[in-house]
Amino acid sequence: MAEAVKTIKAADAALKVIEDWGVDHIFGYPGGSFDDVMNALYDRKDTMKFVQVRHEEAGALAAAAESKLTGKLAVTMGSAGPGAVHLLNGLYDAKHDHTPVLALVAQVPQARMNIDFFQAIDEGPIFDDVAVFNRTATTAEGLPRLIDTAIRQAYKYNGVSVVIIPKNLGWTEIKDNFISTAKNHLAPLYPQPDSVAIDKAVELIKAAKKPIVYFGVGAKKAGAELKAVSEKFKLPLVSTVIAKGIVEDTYPAYMGSTGRPAGKSGTELGFNTDLILWVGNDSPFSIFLFNPRAKVIQIDTDNEKLGKRHNIDLPILADAKTALAALVAKGDELEPTPFYRAALANHKDERAWQASFENDKSEPLRPEPVFAAINKYADDDAVFGIDVGNVNINVMRLLDLKTTQKWTTSGQYATMGYGLPAAVGAKVAFPDRQVFSLSGDGGFAMMSQELLTAAKYNLKTINIVFSNETLGFIEAEQRDDTHQPLSGVDLPDNDWAKVAEGMNVKGYTIRTFDDIDKVFKAAVAADGPVLIDVKLTHEMPMTTQHMFIDPAWQDADKIKEFVTKYQAEDLKPFSAYLKDAEAGKL
């Protein structure tokens, strides 16, 4: 007589599939429509942890951040109706930064669907735009296979998969005989670079007078190869914002990023280059940041991206690491050009100029002394969750990332409120590593309730709020771009340390230069989450969007105004460095 197959509730079977794929926690918030899944989480509490955030948006943001940091699937959940809608913002972040996330979404029981029942909405259409895979379960027996399919799709397309689960299905007993496909999951194989294209690329680089590398997160595993290409062919390295950290910030040929959040040297190179080795990036702003007449060699694994952001002269369909290694293996080492020598000197002087403010005792504080402390006290494997706004500008210029550290921000979607949920996701993913969140007071206020999550689970995170009482990034756009009266950007002063204390998180306030070191010493020694409220100057970080510094072609009055505003007396335009290099002075 055949042995009877054991049964299991469908919701428990769904969690078993998720566990098979290596996930051991879910971010979310309970609701009556998800009682079936909450019961399954209780049943499987030894193998699946439920991380109870304060808001579903924070759960989705935490999952997106975790996935970006680990490269693996992360999972979030929301109840029917309002809980489902709350997920959307975090899921859009995952969509725009191309990272695999699974969202479990509750629905009212099937018998109550489509009849104007309590909290019932037509959930499928609201996820159509954000998801690469969006399905509603129709049978309890099919739920485990649906979850398995959703995970495969999230990995295949590096995006969001949504599975909507009517409440009655999760409670239904089904046969416990489904075997997931997790063991069959393999990393994708990319085409080898065409040898003829590699030869052509080397010839283009050799013929160029002002070549650079512009790389994105598609080069995240190719840091060593980027440096090797730079050193062999004497190419300055410029990255997209979210590719910061692939090459350490202290590497002499790494110029940082380009554009508004970036530093001076990377921005200047973009407009002076005559050839770009464009590696694994899809930055939407790149059309504004480079000489439109520059020749382009583009390396990418996705042929849809070839030529998407800039006219290109040579496409190479291959993985960044493999293609760059193939370039290094070809041709002879080149001598440093005047352009290369000028780029390195410009960047070295820019970093020295920034460092000159690290002991500045102005009140409210400049950002440089605070970031000097972060660089000092951050562990070599620290993880950073970075919010959106002026904090991105300061992070790009002042946070010296090591390749052993990790960081995440809301890149292409750029949603405020990202920093604190990202730190929650980071600490859950990396419980033994030091985790920071860095936020402006505007972004922090949006998700500040997640301090309660950090306190509930005693997540030892160091949460820094830069309080300058303005939406600084928007203020700069209104003032510098549209030249309009400031409107709606002012923020009330707030005692964030007191707020933190009310949420059972240790709070500190930094007002003076002398406060900085003692507060950071206490924060890194704490045995639980802490918040540091830094009272920061209202003055904007240096702008590279409207940089007036070159007397050869810019208005003298505007240069004087710019230099005075940003204390930029020690900065020279790139053209001056290039002139010195061409004269043999560098």
UniProtKB/TrEMBL annotation:
Alphabetized CDD domains for the sequence: TPP_POX
Keyword Endoplasmic reticulum: no
Domain Thiamine pyrophosphate enzyme N-terminal TPP-binding positions: 9-122
Pfam family, one: TPP_enzyme_N
Keywords for the protein's UniProt record, in alphabetical order: Pyruvate, Thiamine pyrophosphate
Molecular function terms, GO-annotated: magnesium ion binding; pyruvate oxidase activity; thiamine pyrophosphate binding
Ranges of residues in domain Thiamine pyrophosphate enzyme TPP-binding: 387-534
Root EC class: oxidoreductase
InterPro entries (UniProt xref): DHS-like_NAD/FAD-binding_dom, POXB-like, Pyruvate_oxidase, THDP-binding, Thiamin_PyroP_enz_cen_dom, Thiamin_PyroP_enz_TPP-bd_dom, TPP-bd_CS, TPP_enzyme_TPP-bd
Keyword ATP-binding annotated: no
Domain Thiamine pyrophosphate enzyme central: 198-327
EC number(s) on file: 1.2.3.3
Similarity comment: family membership: Belongs to the TPP enzyme family.
Record protein name field: Pyruvate oxidase
Organism listed in the record: Loigolactobacillus coryniformis subsp. torquens DSM 20004 = KCTC 3535
Lineage: Bacteria, Bacillati, Bacillota, Bacilli, Lactobacillales
